[in-house]
Amino acid sequence: MESCGGCLPYLLSMRTSRNTQPTPRSAFSGAMASSSYRRNRPAALASCSSKRPAALTACSSRRTRRRRTPADDTDVAAANRGDSSSWASLHEDLVDLIGWRVLASDLRDYIRFRAVCPHWRSSTICPRGRGIVDRRFHPRRWMLMSEGHGIYPGHGKLRGFVRFFNLSTGAFVRAPLPFFKDHCVLDSVEGLLVLQRDHDTAVRLLHPFTGDILDFPPLETLLKYLHPMLLGDKWSYIRSIRATSINVSANGVVSLMMMQQGMTRVAFAASGEQRWRVSIWDFNQYHSPLPFQGKLYVVHHSTTYGEPEILQIDPPQMEERTDPLLQPPSLIAKCPASTLDTVYLYHLVECGSEILVVSQTFNSAGHAQFSVCRLADLILGRIVWVTSICGNTLFIDASGKNMCVASKAFPTIVGDTIVFLNRRKPCLAQYHISSGTLSPTSDGSTLGNLIPSPCSIFYHIVTCCFREYWNKGHIIFQGRLKNWRVRGKWRAGDDVLHEGTGRPKAGNSKWKQQYHDILNIWKSLIMKIMTNIDVMKEILLLSQLEHKNIVQYFGAKKEETVLSIFLEFVSEGSLVSVYEKYQLEESTISAYTRQILVGLAYLHHHNDIKCANILLDLNGTVKVGDFGLAKQIKVWKQKRSCAGSVYWMAPEVIRGAPYGRSADIWSLGCTVLEMLIQRPPYPDENWVSVF
Q: What whole-number distance in Å separates Cα of residue 297 and Cα of residue 243?
């Protein structure tokens, strides 16, 4: 066996050169070492055995290596005989233990460790073939990098390579992956890529560094589980994955759990199966799903002012001779409840080996404030707010993926901060946990998606939180999101909006109607502008609203006599367009009503509740709109004004009597009746004579 006397100095010099001269090919230098490299290694080992200080110089030098001669072989043999402290004498178990310690740091370090000499390579387990079934080989902190400009994985300009970067070290790797010619990325879990094969929609799990791949059932088998009231292309819901969790059982069976848009059940399957199964229980009002150690964690808002619950979904029981079963979620902790004066939103983030719970609140001026605690403390029934997260940075988004990034690896990121989209500016902002202050992360505003190109690595990291940009090779806030440029038949539906205008394409009557529904919803606000009423007060009110059941305000811009207001585009239109096409079931109406109540509780008062003012997004989430008559108030005040649509008005509103919160309850009841009978309540009545 070849001597290992110089292995350790050789490894140290290799690690030193990695930090000073990083190259995209360095991560694969061990696994893909050339034959000439192995032939010349004994000469380096011989020089390392003679003098320890000179070994570092010899191994790290860039001198042109001369051809080996028989004299060199004689010198190596003599060095082997005279090496009294040969590293080859290390027991295989000890080498294996050192290897696992190296692997705990990073998979790339483990590959380098095995590349040092044959003895170390033969004494440790090869990750190839075990990259998925052995969780120790998962590249947890590695993330696929979005190149920008629509250069998606598989694009011709990449020449079959895909770049990855490490969220903890900032290292970059360029890996050859030919799979993307007929595959697209759906999600990433523990560094593994969740792919869809285009022609049959089969889900495949790929290890980007070892090339290991496992097959799962086609997405087509999930179509029947979509909510029947969802509009548009149903494939867009199936391919929009909110969270994916991977679990490896004791007998080596790999299973996946997925939470998708438009589904009220969790999908799960084992590798090699032919169809996806779903949970026998439904979920509603689940927020911030987080995969962690083979399980799914979610925040559940059961009631408006109740304590939000953190639930744990265990992996399916894949036992032999029995049908797989997914147990209902188990309650593990409760969070402080919202009040009439304070609204709490909670986010779950994986940070190191633990889960952090991020509490987001809003003060009277509408500014966001954050607090962070550990889930382990909440499970014990105590709340301990932390002021430091070990120099890490949390990227938070209510509709995307939450991430933790080591700030020391990226010079443009500030440590102990929370990065989020500040919709009041709008811009990306960072909240400093220790001081409680807020500052912008960059000079550019996100309004109009005008971030210049090229941009810093910061925006590449932010893009990873938004899968619809990340998997298409786009950078968020750099122009509008475009659809797949290739193989769109299998990856997405047709683009229904003209690029750059936000208007429906010609010939698309359904989207035309929904587009005009959205314009009509803001009719009252436009009328205020035309009648010269003080609009700035209403805009200030809109800027303070930030809730998942409220149509989002993004900003306003005034040019001479033109005032432009930027609002969230809710693609599915109003509930009127829904019930005109479909007969709503009572369960659907109940779900919509619950979400309306959550939005109203945040607004405190609306006064003009009807189906035309209620919107539906791609996820089936209800959005309350038309804030021309809405008021966000701290104390319920008695008002004397006649505002709202008469068919939904409470009697005291029409009579001009003082009214309060009860008027909204009346209007909500009329809205529920409207969804049931598919028309305004009592449309044939003379409303003047009634009251």
A: 10
- Within 10 Å of residue 663's Cβ, how many Cβ atoms? 24
Percentages of the chain per state (helix, strand, coil), in multiples of 5? 30, 25, 45
Tell the residue number behind the tokens 């209510």, with chain if given. 398
The pLDDT value given to residue 56? 33
pLDDT per residue as tens digits for the range 375-425: 999 999 898 999 999 999 999 886 678 999 999 999 889 999 999 887 666
Give the predicted TM-score (pTM) of the model: 0.64
Report the alpha-carbon distance of residue 302 to residue 284 in Å, rounded.
8
Q: Identify the CA nearest to 348 among candidates 282, 291, 285.
A: 291
Q: Which two tokens stand for residue 24?
A: 């995209």
Domain range enclosing 536? 510-690
Q: What is the CA radius of gyration of the chain?
A: 30
Task: Give tens-digit pLDDT for 143-188.
Answer: 999 998 888 898 889 999 999 999 999 999 999 988 888 899 999 9
| CATH number of the domain bearing residue 551 | 1.10.510.10
Say if 212 falls within a structural domain.
no
Residue 125 C-alpha from the chain's centroid:
33
- What kind and span of H or E run contains 42? helix 35-50
DSSP assignment of 490-521, as one string?
A: HH-----B-TTT-PBPTT-HHHHHHHHHHHHH
On whether residue 309 sits in a domain, the answer given is no
